[in-house]
Structures are given as C-alpha cells and as structure tokens.
Amino acid sequence: MKKIFYAICAFAVLMLSSCGKDFVTAVHNSSEPQSEYYINEERMFQGLVAAYDPLKWFDYFNEYDALNMVSDIMADDIYCGGSNEGDQPKLVKTHFYNVTSLEQCGAIWTICYSGINRACHVLENVDGVPGMTEEKKNLYKAEATVLKAFYYTLLWKFWGNVPYYDKNLEAPYIAPQLKADEVYENIVTRLEEAFELNVLPMKAAAGNEGRVTKAMAYMLYAEAVMYQNDQARYAKALEFMDEIITSGKYSLVSDFASIWEESGEWGTESVWEINYMSEGAARSWGNPIYSGGSVYPMLSGVPGAPEASGYKGGWGFGPVAQSAWDMYEEGDIRRDGGILNFYYEFPDLTLGETRWQYTGLFLKKYVARMNGNHGQIADADMNYGNNQRYYRYAETLLNAAELGVLTGKDRSNCLAEVRARANCSDTGTDQLSILEERHKEFVGEGKRYWDLIRTGQAATVLKAANHEWRQNDWTENKKYWPLPQSECDKDPNLVQNNY
Amino acid sequence: MKHLAYRIALIFAIMGLSCASAFAQQVKGTVKDSAGLPVIGAAVVVEGTANGTTADLDGNFVFDKAVPADAVLVVTSIGYKTAKVPVGSGFVEVVLQEDNEMLEETVVIGYGVQKKSVVTAAISSITSEDLKSQSQTRIENLLQGMTSGVVVVSPSGAPDATSQIRVRGIGSTNGSDPLYIIDGFAVSGGLDYLNPNDIERIEVLKDAASGAVYGARAANGVILVTTKQGQKGKTKVNYDFSYGWQNPWRKPSVLNATEYAIMMNEGYVNSGKAPIYDDPYSFGEGTDWVELIFNDNAPVQKHDLNITGGNDKLTYSTSVGYLYKEGTIGGNYGRSNYDRVTVRQTVNAVLFDNTAQRNWLNKMTFNTAISYAHMNSTGISTNSEFGSPLGSALAMSPLLSVYATPEEEEQYKTMYPEGYAHIVRDASGRAYTVVDGNVYNEQTNPLASLSLPGTKYDTDKFVINGAVELNIWDALKFRSSLGIDLSFWGNHGYTKQYFLSSKSYNYNTVASETTYDKDGNATVTEKINYAESAQQEMNRSFRWQLENVISYDKTFGKHSVAAVLGQTAIRSTGSNVGANARGLMYPYDEWKISVNNTVGQQADGNRNGWGSWNSIAYSLLSYFGRVSYNYDERYMIQATMRADASSHFGPNNKWGYFPSVSAGWNAKNEEFLKDVNWLSMLKVRGSWGINGNDGIPDFKYAVYMSTGNNYTFGSGANGSETISIGAKPNGLANPDAKWEQSIQTDLGVDLGFLGNRLTLTADYYNKITSGMLMAMQVPGYAGDSAPEGNVGTMSNAGIELDFGYRDTYGDLSYSISANATYNVNRLTKLTDDATAFYGSDHKIGQLTRGIVGLPFPYFYGHKTDGIFQNEEEVAAYVNEAGKPLQPNAAPGDVRFVDIDGDGDIDDEDRTYIGKGVPDWSLGLNISLEWKGIDFSMLLQGTIGNQVFNVTRRTDLYYVNLPKTILNRWTGEGTSNTQPKFMFESANNNYRASDLWVEDASFLRARNVQLGYTIPQKWTKKVAIQRLRVYAQAENLFTITKYVGCDPEVTGGNGFSSDLGIDRGVYPQSRTFSVGVNLNF
After folding, report:
1. Is A232 in the B-facing interface, judged by CB distances under 8 Å?
2. CATH superfamily name and code, B2-96
3. Which of A127-136, B81-90, B403-412, B806-815 has the lowest mean pLDDT?
4. A329/B contact by beta carbon, under 8 A
5. Do the Cβ atoms of A375 and B783 come within 8 Å?
6. Does the domain spanning B109-238 belong to CATH 3.90.550.10?
7. Where in chain B are the domains?
8. In angstroms, what CA-CA distances link B292 with B286, B329, B747, B984?
9. Which of A23, A121, A174 sits opposite B619 (nearest CB)?
10. Contacts of residue B727 in chain A, CB cutoff 8 Å?
11. Whether the predicted interface score ipTM is above 0.90
C-alpha cells in the first residue's frame, strides 16, 4: 500500500514541477510574433515590401482615390464624371469643394498612415537583423525613410496639420498634431537624412523597378520644397535635379503617346511608377488590397466604347474638360497623345452611352484598353496592368527650369528640351510660362491643382465663374480638407481645419 | 446515509452487548417511524447500562438478556430524535420522530461538501429526489425550471439542439456560458455525452463567493455535476426503458389556397394592377406545405441499464444507455436524427483502512470513472429565413403541388434544358415540383430539398477520471486526481447534382474559357465545372487536468474549521484534418462516395485538403485556498482565494487573482430561537467576490505577423515584373489584454418552517462584468487596426426566490416547489458611448444591437402608432413646420413615430422596441405519491420577453403568408395594427418596427409524469425488487400569446445577439411516452 502512496506522491510532484512558466504560454501555430520575425535579410525585405504595399491601394480602397484623379478633379482640367451626380458622393464633394469631416476621400488618410506605420517597423527593426551588411541596412533605412516621407507628403498636401510620428506609437496611440509647416520641415529633414546615407541608386536595376531610387527621392524632395515655396532649399533642390539630369540615366521619350502604353512602362523617361500588373492578377472586390492590377483605367474608361476603337467600355469618371483640349497649339503631340477626343479620333464610331459631365474627351493616358487586363484571374475590372506614372523625367526638367528661374540660374535648356519633344513653340521662360508648360505636359497626372496653389493662382483660376459645373469658388480655406471625423472622435486633442 | 446509520448503530449495539449484565425479564418490540415504516438498525439500549440490541429489517428487536421491568429503553437512530420508552409488559412499540435537524442536507461546493445549514454562498441544488421523476435526454433540460437564477432556453426542437444556459443573466457580449465541472473535472466541448440517467445531483454555484474557487472561469456561474456511484450491498440491476412519440407542439399556420389567392389578388390590386386569380374559392385548401414537412409521431426511445454493487472494500457502478431520437422535421427523410450510446463505469476502492489502529496515514481510497459516448446526427438548417426546410414550407404557395404533373415535367424540359436531368425525384421516381426561382429566390420545394443528402456528424468522447484520497493525520486529507477528456468529432457528406429551381441548382457544366495572351491572341479551352462533391473532416482534442488538494475539516467544541488548499493544471490540445473534392466517380452508390473516389484535381481547384495540429491549445495553472469557520453553527464566515495563470492571458497579466468572502448568521441556532418550534431555519447570509472569464481569444495581447502584404516590383516591359511577398504585424498590440472580470454581491436568507416542511430562500444579487473585450478607441493614424481591450461593462442585478413545501397526509405524500427569478440586464459601457455594438441583421433591417444603458441585446427598430385610417389622418401627420412626416403614406399604411423629433421618419428614429430576455423566469414543480401511484408536473414560464417574428419574407412578393395577415387593413376601421397588404410599399411599411415584435411570455408544462409502482408482494415472486410503469408528456401545453412557431428562441449558441429572433425556428416537440423502471 505504501508503494502506491509513494508512487502517487512522486507522480504528483513530477507533474507539478513540469508546470513552469512556459506551461501557460500559448504558442501560435500559424504565425510568428513580431519580436521574433525579423531574423534575416529575407524577412526584413518582407517588412520593407509591406511598406510599399499601400501604394497600390489608392486607386481603390473601398473608395476610388487614384491620386492623380482626386487631385485633378479639384482643378480645372478634369471633371468628376460617373453615371450621375450621386454616383461617388465623396468624389463629387471633393470636386465641388464641399468636403466634410464625414464625407471625404478619407481612405487616403488610412492608406498613408498604414504606409507610415510599416515604414516605421522597418526603421525600428532593421538594425537588429543578423547577417545583413551595413550597406543593406542603410539601403532599407533609406527606402523606408523616403516612403514615409512620401506618405507624409500626401497627408501634408491634403490635410496640412496632421498627427506626425517617426517611431510607431504605443498605447494609448496618440501622436502630436503638427502645423503644416512643421510637417514639411520633418519631411524634408528626413529626406535629407536619407540622402546622407548615400546608398540609393540613381536608377533601379531591372527587376527592381518600383523601388525607391535616388532620382525618385530627389523628385519628392523638389515637390515638397516647391510646394512649400521654401526659398532656402531651392538651390539644394536644383542641385538634385541637375544631378538626375547629368547622371544620363534618364531621357525623354520622343513618342509622347507611347509612354502610356504597356510597352512604355518604365521607359527611359520614367523616374518612378506605382506598379500594377495584369498577368495572374487576382485583385478582387472581396480582396481589394491584393496584389495585381488597377481599377482606375476601368473607372476612367470610355463609357460605351465600341470594341473597334481598341478601348474597353468603362465608367466615365474623370472626363477631360474641353478647355484642356483647347489649350494646345496645333501639332503639340501631348494633346492627341494624352487626351482621347473620341469623335475626333473615331468619326465613324458611336459611343454606346454618355455619362454625367460628358465632354467626349477622356484621359487617354490611363483609359482602359482592350486586353489591358490580359491574364488576370479574378475580377476583370480590377486588374488592369497600367502603372501609375508618378514622376517623369519631363517633370525633372521642368522642375530644374523653374528652380533655375527662382534661383537666378539659367536652365532654359531644360524647358526647351521638353518643348522640343512636344513639338511646340517657345512661349517664354518665366515661371508662369513654365507653369503653363507643366499644365500641358501633365494633364490628368495630378500636378495642376498643387501647382495652382503653390503659385498663388488657385483663388483666381479656380473660381466657379471659370468652371462649367462648380457653384463654389476655391478659397484659401479649401487648401486643407477637414480632418476625418472618426479621428477627431478618437483623439479629442486634434484641432479641426477650417475648410 | 442509511448504510452509514446502520453501521454506526451496529457498532453501538456490539459495544453494548459486550458488557451486558443479567436481568430477569425477556423484552422484545418494534421500532417504527411516524409513517409506520420499520426503522432498520435502530439501537435499543437499557438506560444506564450497556445492555442493548438493534432492530432488524422489519424493525423488530429482541433482548437476549433479561431486562428489569422498571427499566427505560433508549432508542436511537440517525435521522430520528432519541426516544425513551419504559419497558412495561415486555413488548415495546417505539415510534421514532424524524429529526429534521439531524437529517441535514449537504451541498456540494467546489472541492468539498458543506452542511446546508452553514452554507454562506448562493448555491442551488438539484438532488436525486428532484431528478427521479424526470426522464430527459439532455442534461441541460434537467435544469430547466428547476431552480432560480438559471435560465435555460431550448434553441429548437431539433434532436441534437443544445440549450443555452445563462446563470444570473447574460454576463458578457462575448460569451456567457457557465463553467461545467463533472465530478471535479472541467469538460470541454458540450455536455451531450452525459446520460442524464447517470446523474446523481447538480449544484449551480451562482454567486461570486461560491464560484471564486474556480477563479478565472467562474464569471458566468459554475454548474457542478455529481454522477451516480456504486453502492455497497447486494448487486442491484436497474433497467429503464421508454418509448415516445414526438410531434411539434404547434405547427405554424399559413394561408390555404383560397386565402392565398385572395391575398395575392389584393396585393396586385393594391399595386395598381388587375387581380390574377379569377375565382380564389375554386382552389379550395390547396397544398398544406407546413403539414407535409413535419414527421408525425417521430419516435424517441431510450434504454438505460445500470448495475451497482460492492462491499466494504469496493463498490462499482456500470451503466449503458442508448437513445434514438428522430426529428419532427426531416426525420422521416433521415435529415435530423440523433442517436447516442453511452457507457459508464465507476469503481470506488478502499486501498487500506487502519482508522482503528492509528490516526495518521490511516486510510486511502481510490476511485475511477470511465465514460464513453458515441453520437450521430444529421444536419438540417434551422432558424433561418433563407431556404431552411421550415422557412421554405412557410413560403411555398399552397397552389403548388408537391409533385410535378406529367405536363409540368414536359414544360421543365423546355424551361430548364440543362437542369431537367437533375430535378429531384422521390424513391418511386416521381418528380418533385420545381419552383419558380424568380418568385422564391433561394427557397425551394422543401420536400425535394429534404430528399437531398445531409451532412452527417459524429462524435466519440472518452472521459476518464481517477482520484486517490489519503487521510494524512487526524482530519487532514490529501486528494490527487487526474482527468482525461479525449474527443473525436467530425462530419462527412456529399452533394449530389440537383435542380430545385433556377436559383438553387448544382450540376456539372462545361465551360469554354477564353484567355488572352499579351498580344491579344485568344485561346479557348473547355473545362468541366464539377458540381458533385464529397467532403469529410475530423477533429480531435485531448485535455487533461491534474489536481492536488489538501483539506482539513474539524470541529473543536463549538468551533468548526474547514480549509482547502489546492493546485490545478489543465492543458488541452487538438488537431483537425479535412478534405473535399469534386466530381464523384460513383454518384449512384452512396457506399462508394468518398473524397478518394473523385475525379477532381487540385490544379483545377477541385480537390482541397487542410489540417493542423495544436489547433486548440489551452493551459491553465491555478492555486486556490478556502477557509471556513463557524462558531456553534451560528456565525459562519468563509474566504476564498484563487490565482489562475491562463494561456489566454499575456505576459503583462499572466496571473489573475480572484478573492471572495462570505458570511452568515444562522439565527435558529441561537438560544432565543431554539424553542420556537414553528421556525426550523432562519439564516441570513451575504457574499462578495471577484470572478473571471478567461474565455477570450488567444493572442489578443501579442502582435503576430501576417504575410500577403505584397507589392509588385519590376517592369512588364522587360519581363521582370513579379510579386514580392510582404509581411507586417497583424495589428496594434494591447499587451495588457486580459480576462473579463465580474464582481458580484449577494444577500440571501434561508427560511424553514414546520420542521423544514416549508422552506423559503431569497437572494438579491448585483453582478457587474467589467473589462469585456472589444475594439479599443485608437485613432486610425496609428496606422493599423485597433487592438481589442478590456473596455466594456455589463451589469446584471436581480432577485431570486425559491419556495418548497413537502408533507404527508395519510398515505399521500406530496411536495411543491416553486422558483422565480427577476433579472435586470444593462450594458453599461462600450468602446465608445456614441456607437452601438453590432447586432443581427435581416432583410428588413438591423434587428438587434447593444448600446449603453439598455439590455443586451435589445430589439431595434421603429415605433409605430397605428395605421392611417383615411386621407385626413395622413394629411394631419405633419411636423412642426407643417410638412408631412410621411410624404409617401396613404390610408392603410403604418404611422411611424418621429422619435428624434427632427421632422422626418428615417433611420435615426429607430429605438428600443423590445428584448428577447425575460424579466421573470418561473418554475413550478409538483409531485404526489399515493399508494404506489406517483404523479409529477413541472411548469416553466417567463414574463417580459418578446420575439422578433421575422419568419415572413417581405422581399419575396408571391410567397405564402402567415394566417395573421388576414387581419390586415382593408378599409377604414378594419385594423389599427396590420397595414394593408402590399408587395412593395412606398411608405416602407415592412421595415423593422414593433409590428414584428410580439409578446413571448409563456407558461409551459415541461414535464408531466404519472407512474405506478406495482406492489412488491407481486413482483417479488418473479425476483423483481421494484417495477414501475409510467406515462410521460413533455410540453403537454404551452400558454402564450406568441403566434409563431415557438416562444423560446435562442438564435444559436455562444454569441447571443440573435436572442429572440424567430426566423422560422424548429418548434419544440410535444412528446408522449411510456416507460418502465425495473429494479432487480
């Protein structure tokens, strides 16, 4: 009997001693904790990729916020469009300067901060990754820093006074709201820090297209400096533009129209594009953040386009204003290369339907082509392969020309190069002439609205009287959208913009 | 109790005999109780001497030695008051009075038992006495109506339906199921493996003080189940058998063909069209679909065999049970049947017993219980408005026939050229009617859909407990126990090719797919899209629990002390594996259908497999202690502390501490009440404590990585475009996420009168659950999804009353017990006071939700104010600005109330319109026994609950309607509650409003049983100890104003936001059965 007793006692003691701390620590069977994830370069690269990931959501993240479209419908070249005035209320409100804290293109806010959060994860973890060379670590840091600056630049331009952080937040997850000028200062300072690492290549090697390059970061820097009218940094920005130009890695494409074809992606003129692909693309309405194609070509597509035109029937958002077509002088290849004037181009064909704010003019740069979604395997409308051309070498040249004017250095050769490619005449070399050149060069590319603001022309140009549809004038208050209401609810310290 | 009494008496008697002295007179006599029954083993001793004897089986005693004539006999027996009787003539008749104080009940508490008189916590006991007249198939039903504070709602009449049990209200938005402890072992994954026949008693630990010993798992109450153990003595064989016939207690009433045609005509006319049926009366009754889908007199049968026996060293109990229950819907099609085999074996052994020799390490006992259950059931969709058999039966037009006529079949050939080959036929080859998909959407001919194969579910469960107990020293005991629960469950099934309607079909198709390459060249390929499929899934879980407990229980004079100190470790792990595949090789032969025998290929997406191990891992490590003290059974105090570390908790809150205290005063034991004879019990008690709910999802405290955050690098132009894999944390972290916590205060009083023939218990409680896990308030700019945190708060407060009366009157013994519970539930805090907790949806809008200050969940919709009777009333319904509130309204439309007063009727005007939780839950149990005839009746009811009756599909126009539609408005003064019948109403009459909400208070005769025990003098001749035959009726009658299928609606298990929504619930059965209890 004693034996049984001792055996049981021993068993009980053994069982007890096996119940250490680990006993009640749960182990996830399908995922790893963040703290144990970044164990090699491959894993860290996954973290970096995740910071790029939100770039491709802008065209659709439960609302249609393609950056070029959202910017340009606030200016005068592009209308809102769609089937009727109630089709996409957020876009219509943006178009008519009626943005509210509840109805706005708030997905941009979410996407940008998602990107910032992920970029911060890279910056916070890369130093601890074993087996990575110092140079690789610096490269990842530089890329993440530039991406973070890119996302903040969008927030700064759309909302101005936004919460800012460089290190991911911890509970209770509250960040200070900075004034727009302070946000700017942080953006350019971070970019300058990234440049000091001196690891970014001037141009991406084959297979790496889409990653941050020195040229892309310089363009972002110039964009921010010029939008801020920061005279102190004009010289620096110009230096950067010169560096891109003298590197010889980029050049203008002679056939303007070819830039926008699939074969034109990442051509010699392309500084940076947001990548989409259609082959094997599986983006779907149920999973819109999946990697694959873009819905924007379908969104801006020609409504009722007959197959013979080579265009795929789309939904008619972002039609081009007649005034945009009319501004070109005869022979300027940017008009027919960038704008589709349907009946001018296809006098024998008929469009199946017309939509709201119909002009007969469409943004040829992006409208869906037949087979533009070849090889897609999910929702056909969501998987057009068109990359978004974000920075083109033409802009580098025009930036240089303008910064030259602003700093008293002659870069008129840059302006001349752009005009020569366009096949148009010399119409002056002062800042306003350069802006007019930008207007023609970048129709529908999301530059015009910001150019008008930074040069103080918005209030005079964007008057209801000058617009076929608008009832409201643009005023200085319209520069910054109201902060999203849900954010003000969750962070009561946020000071709302006076829109 | 009886055996113990017998043994003690025997010892007493032997001791007495050993030192007897000699006297002259021979004395004998009988000892009987007040009912005239022999008191077996009563000790009879001559006062002042050691001369004694004991009463035999018939209560007779005889002194071997002579007794003086003037002597006085002292007669004692446990449970009776001591009697002193003069010897007199030599034949002594002794009548012992029962001593109710001595016959003190005990109550099972966590890790121990306690005398009821000193219990200071709120515990409800359901004893074997209460259970003996119940013949139930599931343990949850044993609790129904039996005690206060416990609300049991049957979800449906389906044979495998699991009832929802709530102890003292809905404790959390996340899950409010109580903890079940079966013989000390926390069993996971349902209780249906337990045969109710194996249960000895059930205790419900309701307050925090009683539950605190189970710490982090006790916030929603604890249910302790004690199973039957072997009894010492002659081998006993019990066999119980019953056979019953089930029918739905109510069949929902829908329109007959004539009424249907009239209503359809009315719908057309009200839509401005011409009526479509010329002569509705020519259709007569039409097809009664509701009648057709029910399986009349669905059988239920039970067999239970139990063998017990043993001696001083070893006792055992073996039981085998079998249950077969056919569903009242689909049972005859093999679609909702249930069967269960249970086997249970217990052994209690005394390893050594040296109590006579020494007081240390003097006794060791060992007990084991092994149980196995095997269960099968077949799936059927219940409580769904979308295409469930009952939902479809309610919707089918009575003009449709069950079977297609030959002419109709001909039409199908042209209407459905592809589907025709797959229309469903019955065994004799007759084609079931194919319904018009445009009219019925996904609803189909219910008999055709019942004829399709259903998924079969099976479960095998082994539960094994073993414990050793050792007397260490004096009253100090050590107990070590190990419990193991090994479960396997799974399902398998297949889908045939079928065509039920143009919206509900499944057959192979050949698709030609055109793919384009980069240059726009098209390639066309042909591909079969297989529809038939087979699928199978198996799950396994293994759980063990090791417990070591030291207890001490001793009385020193007037001081009684009891202490428990213990440790528990629990771990469970699981795995699962499954597969499905399309394209059956032998679709015509059910025996050959399996995933193996399919042609589907993985590359085409036609074959899938999945599996994981450690899929459900859970560990718990706990230490607990309890100290109880009472002085003279007058002043009682008890304190409990438990510390739990759970795998659900993060490193910041690995250990949770759960204290409680309770105290009581038993005033009856005070001097000044000792002699108040009418009062037999007066005890007041109070308790306070903290319990936890660790039933929170894993890893809420940590951040894990998720892949799939990809991006494309490279260029299509140079062919380098590829997707790179990206990974990111799966959200923001809340390392502080921890258990939900409930703090509960309880005040109670226990009263007994007239020798405890009349008892009364009343409790007031206030339970506040805080830290309910829900999304935290985190701004979106933090860059990822908000973590869940311990944010929400819920409160439940209420009153519980239990009343009992038992007495005898001549040969009649009777008892009545009644209970009532009043509970007020409030959601008191959410993530954000402005937003609501999401609830359940329906075609007519959101039906339930939760907001701060209201019960959870509550019904959400518009308040109505009658029906517009005429144009004047419509015109008069204007806002302050004089504009019509309902511009689209016409006479016969519903008048909605402008709740927010903003001058229009919109979604903002939705408000509280009812709730599915009752205010009062009531139970009444009556039992009578008279000369072998026994009768018992259990009534159960609720007051103050409503049902959202959304069985009608307003989005389908030409479907059948509930009979109540005949009360619709047809002109001024015809109805002020039902709008005119329209297919589509500009006024949106059919949006979610109080018109759909009905009072669902009910009173139900759960169980009525009448039995007769055949007198022993006859049965003994065939070696039968006891033979009882009985007849039983379950759900004999239900009194309710509710017109739908059943006033009891849970809306599924676990998450309870569907509580009270009737989407076409499977009505409960009214079962008549007969049975036999046979004891050898």
Report:
1. no
2. Carboxypeptidase-like, regulatory domain (2.60.40.1120)
3. B81-90
4. no
5. no
6. no
7. 2-96, 109-238
8. 12, 9, 53, 30
9. A23
10. 37, 43, 46-47, 49-50
11. yes
